[in-house]
Amino acid sequence: MSTRLYPTFVKGNPQLRIFLPNFFMKLVKPKINEPSNHVSFIVPVEMTDDDIKNYLEKIYKTPVTQVRSRICEGEIKKNYKNYLVKDPDYRMACITLPDDVKFEFPDLFPQEKKEQVEKEQKRLIQQAEDLMKQRRRNWDRKDVPTWFGV
After folding, report:
1. Residue 63 has pLDDT above 90, yes or no
2. Which GO terms describe its molecular function (predicted)?
């Protein structure tokens, strides 16, 4: 079910051809505690349950026990000019893996990286405070040039 245009095959001109699907699957973190063998995805509306199962089994080589999906309406909002704007619809797919397969959501922000970011932020805050102390030193002589002296 691909809509990509591929060059026509010419006999005597064999080429390597890789057919990639036009679909995307976005992994969604569950809002409630689900069993470890359940995974949720946001997929396009055109994708069927069989497409989802084949996508996971063929491309990612993941065994799939059951696929359930539902179509969710996009959110309707008002923009700054009071026009109604509707987000596109999407399909929510809930995948059940075999009991022996456990899925663990990847840790996108590991602890050591958080500590490194916090350390860098503290350094920048300290640097800003030192700069403000230097500027505050001559607060009463703001119209006198710096070359004139302290």
Report:
1. yes
2. structural constituent of ribosome
